[in-house]
Design a protein that fits this description.
This protein is α/β, with parallel strands linked by helices. The chain has a six-stranded parallel beta sheet, with helices on both faces. α13 packs antiparallel against α17. It starts with a strand and ends in an 11-residue tail after the last strand. It binds ligand ME8. Ligand ME8 binds next to β1, α1, α7 and β11. Is required not only for elongation of protein synthesis but also for the initiation of all mRNA translation through initiator tRNA(fMet) aminoacylation. Homodimer. It is found in: Cytoplasm.
Length: 641
């Protein structure tokens, strides 16, 4: 069997700091690599940063740096975060490295020589935040991105196109023949129906800015950032400079890309088409996970509810944090990160089930046998049950990990841990200990417990490496758990007669939700990195005339239930303004005498045969809609600046 494995995370944009979302994918990849190693694989794990493109260029500029300076500041921040989260990647790639530039050149050349690139003009809409071209039929709310909701820009420039349409059938066939190519399987249908709508050729070059990899056959053009970024997966395993490595970790490995559902199409459509054109093998699994929200809301910098992994690991410890992320949500589904669910999880699974089991077991071993292993031979049906369950659990974990279902794998592991707890109740060692005649039986029971814990440590190691090591150490095993293999712990009686167990120390302290120190945000703190939606320039604002107007008359419009008709004074003249707010002002005449704000340079238009020469400003909240009132002392016609 092929025992090489290659797992990747997306390479993250360096426009902001890593957060719980990027941490999630990276932890998932780390868990997978560690798990595969325990299963005897030679696993290679890649993460890194996506440093080119308009989004990064613009962020750098806003912050007052050159793009290179900015990426040099940001890339180490990702490395630092991953170190704190116990991530042990094999390589960290930055797309500004020369090895990557060479790899991009190579793949572009291959695709070009294959006749799959032609010159044309791109004319349409572009979302800088997603770095993606948005076809007309997908635009939402007038001019916004269907994925992130941000405003789109018009792009009209000469561009080179990749003949993606040519690979439509080959890709569909591949997906059909490989049921696990896109995971979870539920995502597969979405991708297939998208492809079936017809693949468009893809613009793969830009020529109106400079932060990217130049294209040899297209002077003045740089590589479209996604074409550049996706290639990173090849670069890191020696596509351009190390054929031996490339053979090992690409051609002869199980290749798995982990990513969020936001970028499935790039990975399950564009990327395989690029590889088909370049004549390279396709990855084996493209696995998309869901989206994290925080305490029930979408995470955003402006709301200030972005979960910072550092504060979480300060509260719970890194292993508990890793465990909760992987356990709480089924991989593929969206999840909500809340303090309550994390605390509940830690208390029940870690402190109670696992921590207590270890504590009780070591306590009893010390009491009954002085903490030194004694083997015995008196078996019972409970021993058989435990042993059978263990074999089933290993199999179940392997099946779940194959379809990248971490929470299900953990459920299986916890079935075993809970069974060990139940085994204590069934065998009641404290009763056995009362009678010297049961000493041999007591030894068998206690050995099953320490043995079970020894095995459990290997199973939880990918998720909680430090705690797993602590469990081994408390069991008197000094070996580095990194080297542990599931195969070695399949059998029983792993701890031999005379083995000295260590001391029990609590690994997962119980948390109290009430008294948990949740660092309170300073309500007066100003967020300097606040992200503004649809930012405009002061010159944009200057175009809009907002003036104070006094309502002189207000009434209903015949035949139009929603409309109110106002006569307003703008200081030197009177205007008529219509507004669709009748529902909120059943007695409009009460508005007479109030001063409100109006946009006065909106093109006049007729509604229901009546002219409207402006727009009254209003605000809306859960209590309904209200006109924006101004102090009556302000003179009519005064401009809002
Ligand atoms: O897309 N919940 O980079 P990116 C879950 N550079 N996962 C989340 C998340 C959330 N709320 N927020 C982010 C890019 N993620 C490209 C990738 S790959 C060749 C190029 C995770 O910085 C998730 O993995 O926007 C998502 O796919 C990724 O961060 C997007 O990272």
């Amino acid at each position: 069997m092929n025992k090489n494995f290659y797992v990747t995370t997306p390479i993250y944009y360096v426009n902001g700091d890593p957060h719980v979302g990027s941490a999630y994918t990276t932890i998932a990849a780390d868990v997978m690599a560690r798990y595969k190693r325990t299963m005897g694989y030679d696993a290679y794990f890649l993460t890194g940063t996506d440093e080119h493109g308009q989004k990064v260029e613009e962020t750098a500029k806003q912050k007052g740096y050159t793009p290179q300076q900015w990426t040099d500041i940001m890339a180490p921040r990702f490395k630092e975060m991953w170190a704190k989260l116990g991530i042990e990647y094999s390589d960290f790639i930055r797309t500004t490295e020369s090895r990557h530039k060479e790899a991009v050149k190579k793949i572009l050349k291959k695709v070009y020589e294959n006749g799959d690139i032609y010159k044309g003009e791109y004319s349409g809409k572009y979302c800088v935040s997603c770095e993606t071209f948005v076809p007309e039929n997908q635009i939402v709310n007038g001019n916004h991105c269907p994925d992130c909701g941000k405003e789109l820009r018009v792009v009209k420039e000469e561009s080179y196109f990749f003949k993606m349409s040519k690979y439509q059938d080959a890709l569909l066939e591949h997906i059909d023949k490989h049921p696990d190519f896109i995971l979870p399987r539920s995502r597969r249908n979405e991708v297939v129906s998208f492809i079936k709508q017809g693949l468009q050729d893809l613009s793969i070059s830009r020529n109106t800015f400079e932060w990217g990899i130049p294209i040899e056959f297209a002077p003045g053009h740089i590589t479209y950032v996604w074409f550049d970024a996706l290639t990173n997966y090849l670069t890191a395993v020696g596509y351009e400079n190390n054929p031996e490595m490339f053979d090992k970790y690409w051609n002869n490995a199980e290749v798995m890309h982990l990513l969020g559902k936001d970028i499935v199409r790039f990975h399950a459509i564009i990327w395989p088409c690029m590889l088909l054109s370049a004549g390279e093998k396709l990855p084996d699994k493209v696995v998309a996970h869901g989206w994290w929200t925080s305490e029930g809301e979408k995470m955003s910098k402006s709301k200030g509810n972005v979960v910072d992994p550092i504060s979480e690991i300060e509260k719970y410890g890194v292993d508990a944090f890793r465990y909760c992320l992987m356990r709480e949500v089924q991989f593929g589904n969206d999840g909500d990160y809340s303090t309550k669910s994390v605390v509940t999880r830690i208390n029940s699974d870690l402190a109670n089930d696992l921590g207590n089991l270890l504590n009780r077991t070591l306590g009893m071993y010390k009491k009954y046998f002085g903490g030194v292993v004694v083997n015995g031979a008196t078996r019972d049906k409970y021993d058989d049950e435990i042993e059978t369950l263990w074999t089933e659990v290993v199999k179940e974990v392997e099946e779940q990990m194959n379809i990248v279902q971490y929470s299900k794998a953990l459920e299986a592991i916890w079935k075993f841990i809970s069974r060990l707890n139940k085994y204590i109740d069934e065998t009641a060692p404290w009763t056995l200990a009362k009678d010297e005649a049961n000493r041999d039986r007591l030894a068998v029971v206690m050995n099953h417990l320490v043995d079970g814990l020894y095995k459990a440590a290997v199973m939880v190691y990918p998720y909680m490496p430090t705690s797993a090591q602590k469990i081994w150490n408390q069991l008197g095993e000094t070996r580095d758990i990194h080297t542990a293999k599931v195969e070695e712990v399949m059998g029983w009686n792993l701890l031999r007669e005379g083995h000295v167990l260590g001391n029990a120390e609590p690994i997962f302290p119980r948390l109290d939700l009430e008294t948990l120190e949740v660092p309170k945000k300073d309500p007066m703190q100003v967020n300097e990195d606040l992200e503004v939606e649809n930012p405009i320039d002061i010159t944009d604002f200057d175009k809009v005339n907002i003036q104070v107007v006094e309502i002189l008359e207000a009434g209903k419009v015949k035949g139009a239930d929603k409309l109110l008709k106002f006569k307003v004074s703008v200081g030197d003249h009177v205007r008529q303004i219509l507004s669709g707010i009748a529902k909120y002002y059943p007695e409009p005449e009460k508005l007479v005498g109030k001063k409100v704000l109006a946009i006065t340079n909106l093109k006049p238009r007729k509604m229901r045969g009546e002219i409207s020469q402006g727009m009254l400003l209003s605000t809306e909240d859960k209590n309904g809609l209200r006109l924006v009132e101004v102090n009556t002392e302000v003179e009519n016609g005064s401009k809002a600046k």
